[in-house]
């Protein structure tokens, strides 16, 4: 089983999902019990399929479930972007930067460039805190404002910045920080 870092929704959907049970058919055609990482992959594929094309504002619970499953247990920081169309429907989820256990470098130029390439109208920023504390830091607040200003220069809105820590997902918009 591969343990590569998925970087977009397409990577989840490119591997066919299982039959929905806890058995997997191997290359010889025999069924065997699914391993934990295979079950997690199937769950992530299902959540990715539910997220793509969904209206972010109508399904925040689905998005939070997807983010929790994708980033909640990682031992290192990942910064990702959810790209939205003009109706706030999800175009894509892209993991842009990978860091260490306590930080990651984020480049506003690359975030804006990716938004333009995907023809995004709005963005939702996402990153995880492997420490387990979902509360945004001052650096998180500064980064959010920097990215919000950079995106605004090309008429792209930043709607929220989610922080995932284990089972917790905090919205900076809900905290009044966006």
Quick summary:
The protein has 178 residues and is an alpha+beta fold. The chain is 33% helix and 24% strand. One of its GO terms (molecular function) is metal ion binding.
CATH topology: Cytidine Deaminase, domain 2
The CATH superfamily turns out to be Cytidine Deaminase, domain 2
- Please tally the β strands and state the result: 7
Coarse shape = globular
**Rg (C-alpha, Å):** 17 Å
Low-confidence stretches: 1-5
Largest sheet: 5 strands, mixed
Average pLDDT figure: 83
Order of helices and strands: HEEHHEEHEHEE
Determine the fraction of residues in helical runs and give it as a percent range: 25-40%
> Could you tell me how far the N terminus lies from the C terminus, measured between alpha carbons in angstroms?
39 Å
| Discrete helix count | 5
The level 1 CATH classification is: Alpha Beta
Secondary-structure class:
alpha+beta
Q: Within the largest sheet, what's the order of strands?
A: 4-3-5-6-7
InterPro entries: MPN (IPR037518), RadC_JAB (IPR025657), UPF0758 (IPR001405), UPF0758_CS (IPR020891)
Protein name: MPN domain-containing protein
GO molecular function, one term: metal ion binding
Pfam family, one: RadC
Write structural notes for this entry.
Residues 56-178 form the MPN domain. One of its GO terms (biological process) is proteolysis. InterPro entries: MPN, RadC_JAB, UPF0758, UPF0758_CS. The structure is a single chain. This protein is α+β, with helices and mostly antiparallel strands and 178 residues long. The chain has one domain (22-175): Cytidine Deaminase, domain 2 (3-Layer(aba) Sandwich), CATH 3.40.140.10. Helix content is 33%, strand content 24%. The protein contains 5 helices and 7 strands, in the order αββααββαβαββ. It has helices spanning 9-13, 36-51, 60-71, 108-117, 138-152, and strands spanning 23-25, 31-33, 78-84, 90-98, 122-128, 157-165, 168-171. A 5-stranded mixed beta sheet has the order 4-3-5-6-7, sandwiched between helices. The protein is globular, with a radius of gyration of 17 Å. The model is unreliable at 1-5 (pLDDT under 50).
């Amino acid at each position: 089983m591969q343990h590569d870092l998925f970087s977009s929704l397409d990577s989840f959907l490119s591997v066919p999902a299982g039959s929905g049970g806890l058995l997997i058919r191997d290359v010889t055609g025999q069924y065997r019990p699914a391993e934990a990482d295979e079950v997690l992959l199937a769950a992530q594929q299902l959540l990715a399929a539910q997220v793509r094309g969904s209206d972010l504002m109508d399904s925040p619970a689905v998005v939070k479930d997807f983010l929790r499953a994708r980033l909640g247990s990682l031992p290192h920081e990942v910064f990702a972007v959810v790209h939205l169309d003009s109706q706030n429907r999800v175009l894509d989820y892209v993991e842009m930067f990978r860091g260490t256990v306590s930080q990651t470098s984020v480049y506003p130029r690359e975030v804006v460039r990716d938004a333009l390439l995907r023809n995004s109208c709005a963005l939702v920023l996402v990153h995880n805190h492997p420490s387990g504390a979902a509360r945004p830091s001052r650096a998180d607040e500064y980064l959010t404002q920097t990215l919000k200003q950079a995106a605004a220069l090309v008429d792209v809105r930043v709607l929220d910045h989610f922080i995932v820590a284990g089972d917790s997902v905090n919205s900076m918009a809900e905290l009044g920080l966006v």
